[in-house]
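Q: Could you predict the 3D structure of catalase?
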Amino acid sequence: MAKPQMTTTGGNPIADNQNSLSAGPRGPLLLQDYQLIEKLAHQNRERIPERVVHAKGSGAFGTLTITHDITKYTKADIFSQVGKKTDMLLRFSTVAGERGAADAERDVRGWALKFYTEEGNWDLVGNNTPVFFVRDPLKFPDFIHTQKRHPRTNMRSATAMWDFWSLSPESLHQVTILMSDRGLPLSYRHTNGYGSHTYSFINAAGERFWVKFHFKTRQGIKTMTNREGEQVIAKDRESSQKDLYEAIEAGDFPQWDMQIQVMAEEDAEKCAFNPFDLTKVWPHADYPVIPVGTLELNRNPENYFQEIEQSAFSPSNIVPGISFSPDKMLQARIFSYADAHRYRVGTWYEALPVNRPKSAVNHYHLDGSMNAGYSTSANAYYEPNSFNGPAESDRFAEPPLKISGDADRWNHRDGNDDYTQPGNLFRLMNPSQQQALFNNIAEAMQGVPQEIVDRQLAHFDKADPAYGAGVRAALAAHGDGVTNNISVQEEPQAEPATA
Ligand code: NDP
Ligand code: HEM
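A: Sure. Here are the predicted structure tokens for catalase:
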């Protein structure tokens, strides 16, 4: 079969793609060699900014299949029938590293889901942990600064991390998970996913419920020790990418059980803790998990850049029957993500194939950079209009939400128990998991000033005296040498040249 004719981006046929246009065989080059100029200019624009967090990731497409009827809680079309299948995309990530970072790092794993439903895209942008480090979004950029590079040394700083965490006791729950065996997963396939925030469900009768989403791995939770992680990284920086890609290529499709926890709207007032606090879980005994469906990843992207790097997830993408909650962190994320995408990808990021809803999209946004042609009818380019342009419909209105209180900068630490749930987590670990936790913390604290270590130890003590005691013992056992166990091999010196 004849090969297609190679062209410039303007479609002009190319005669020679091996030799640039020069004055004579030795050059110099001619400015009119547009092919060369286009090629170099395009290369200069091949990268887009990496995500400010969660820059390193891997993704795959798949299906959510509904196995249980939850229509009494939500009218969302995606859950409307047992057996219903919805196409979806899942991008996993690590948080702190740059795009070239190694996968096998101790870090939270991102779990960003995009469901292409018949009523628009539903994005559930969670993590492999049910809680988070902070509960007020005003603290998020500072927290992220401690995870990224120190401005002067250009290295990551354990001092910054433990300084921030020790001054922010609400982080203890997530820090305990991060330093536990689950903080270094064997691969993405071996993690659970959590929506983490409390969201709301609205049913056909207009009743609101509070809901949490969970995805439990059928591959089993599998984790690595720090030493195992180091060995993996020494040989392979893309271990999670490789694992996911190869499993799917081999037809070994990873699966997760989707589950929810549900709370009646009025029960939020009666709950012993703030159910909208992202540093807390809802105990299973009080809010048992309810099965919903099966998530399966079964297709690798054809083009990583187009479908994964350009994918743009936002908690602002909700569908009828699923909505927000008063969680302050969620509220901020509703703003932050679409803003990030307009900067990172561009104004029309939702029109790119990977982000484009599979349902109809009708709005009145006009023009803008890289507008590839969403259009309404020629005369209906404003609203309201008399030319049959798209119109609102009140059947999608949410029931009113009661809120109250004085506008103020409320202290989110007042009356908040930051210790019981981390303590519960510590107490459910078996002795070897607890020992791994102690060791991981002791290693991560190497080089941190004693004053900061002591401040953090006081938090461990408050969660459980055995937690603090275990970390103290691990610190004493580790001494200073733990991160410096590399033996230096010197190269033999070359003999000086003689005259
Ligand atoms: P349960 O005993 O009912 O639940 C404990 C849950 O802890 C398990 O279902 C499992 O969650 C999770 N878990 C087990 N081992 C670890 C580990 N090493 N690291 C992290 N998570 C682990 O008790 P509660 O519901 O009262 O929760 C107790 C503690 O468990 C919480 O304080 C929280 O830290 C943790 N947890 C609770 C979750 C929840 O939604 N209630 C979810 C995840 C953790 P899973 O089945 O999701 O793997
Ligand atoms: C990525 C902001 C909290 C999970 C991002 C990005 C931003 C951001 C700007 C990059 C988006 C992009 O360029 O595509 C924030 C802010 C937060 C917050 C302001 C708090 C106020 C959280 C929490 C979770 C989370 C609590 C999980 C429960 C993720 C994930 C990604 C991400 C998974 C990667 C998405 C992808 O794969 O493209 N966040 N974040 N973030 N965030 Fe957050």
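Q: Anything worth pointing out?
A: The pocket of protoporphyrin IX containing FE (ligand 2) is lined by residues 51-54, 57, 91, 93, 110-112, 125-127, 132, 137, 140, 196, 278, 311-313, 329, 332-333, 336-337, 340-341, 344 (CB under 6 Å).
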